[in-house]
Write a structure and sequence with these properties.
The chain folds into 2 domains: about 5-245, Creatine Kinase, Chain A, domain 2 (2-Layer Sandwich); about 250-340. It is of the alpha+beta class. The longest helix has 29 residues, at about 220-250. The protein is globular. The chain contains 12 helices and 10 strands.
Length: about 350
């Protein structure tokens, strides 16, 4: 898939999740491994890094369970092309310049090679779908480990560049939209309680969204970590559900006014910044979840979160001038998009 195609693709939103999708943006699991006999990625020289990339790419290309993917070499990409991966939440750092990304064409899994660790494998789906992606991810990693030896210690488990990822070498994370906890001013209390359970919270790549994840992967069997983490995720989703419904019952007119005003601005603005658009879209998304708006879907909103970002707009409209203000173009895109999906 070319970058131009990636920037306008629906990705994992080509099928809409059910049930908890108004709260759960996506479910993700990352498996982290390092080849035995080599230093961690940040200490590799260019020759060693190329050798490891070649070994891993050959293994992935010959994996019977993997197909329909594209290999991207970030070293040869322009800034606009690299930033598409950041805006899609595939790259966690907008200052990442080099490395290899192997991305499935449906964007439901990807590998990052020789970035922080030799291999990071992420499998993901929209909504709450951990059982599916855990089973799939385990099968993929099992196939890879049948042919490659990874750094492993009887005392510490899999060895990784970040101590908290050592042990099972797994990070389970869920991306959530939590307006109920924000409106009710319980977000800080919620974070403290999660920390006590070994669950971490970090701001998402988009304001108003949060990534919740297991802070540690050492000391417990992989299955136990999975069960403990997913159980806490289920409680979080329920807690958000209760808070947003309570706030709506107590402040129905206020919330409906904010939802409809936000929708009105998105549908009629002539200039709009990215951060204002994200804030307004968050209110509209809440309105869809509460049943206030019924002719837009969560899928429509999820796609907007990608499409209105700066570099997605630049790639879609082939804009090379980095000094061009995108507020007018973003407003036009929003008006056209919202009229089209109604």
């Amino acid at each position: 898939m070319k970058i131009e195609e990636l920037a306008i693709s629906e990705g994992i939103w080509n099928s809409e999740a059910k049930d908890t999708s108004d709260i759960v943006f996506k479910s993700s699991i990352k498996f982290v491994r390092n080849l035995d006999g080599y230093v961690f990625a940040h200490k590799l020289n260019v020759k060693e890094k190329d050798k490891i990339n070649k070994i891993l790419i050959e293994n992935i290309e010959n994996n019977d369970r993997l197909s329909d993917f594209t290999i991207y070499n970030l070293d040869s990409f322009s800034k606009v092309d690299r930033m598409i991966f950041f805006e899609r939440n595939i790259l966690m750092n907008d200052r990442t310049y080099g490395g290899i990304i192997i991305l499935s064409n449906d964007q439901k899994y990807y590998f990052i090679l020789c970035n922080d660790d030799h291999i990071e494998f992420v499998t993901l789906k929209p909504g709450f779908n951990f059982n599916d992606i855990f089973i799939y991810g385990k099968k993929i990693m099992h196939n890879i480990e049948n042919k490659l030896d990874f750094a492993f210690s009887e005392s510490f488990g899999y060895l990784t560049s970040y101590f908290q990822n050592s042990g099972s070498g797994i990070e389970i994370f869920i991306t959530l939209h939590l307006p109920g906890l924000i409106i009710s001013s319980k977000i800080n209390e919620f974070v403290v309680e999660l920390e006590k359970q070994g669950i971490g919270v970090r701001g998402g790549w988009i304001d108003g969204y949060y990534e919740i994840y297991n802070k540690y992967s050492m000391g417990l069997a992989e299955k136990k970590i999975f069960e403990h983490t997913v159980s806490n995720f289920q409680k979080i989703v329920q807690y958000e559900r209760e808070n947003r419904e309570n706030e709506y019952n107590m402040n129905k007119s206020i919330i409906e006014d904010k939802v409809w005003r936000s929708y009105g601005v998105l549908l009629s603005s002539r200039l709009i910044s990215l951060y204002e658009a994200f804030d307004l879209i968050s209110h509209v998304r809440l309105g869809i979840g509460l049943g206030i708006i019924n002719y837009l879907t969560i899928k429509d909103i999820n796609l907007l979160l990608y499409y209105i970002q700066d570099f997605h707009l630049r790639k879609r409209y082939n804009i090379e001038d980095e000094n061009l203000n995108l507020e007018e173009l973003r407003a036009q895109f929003l008006r056209d998009y919202l009229k089209e999906v109604i």
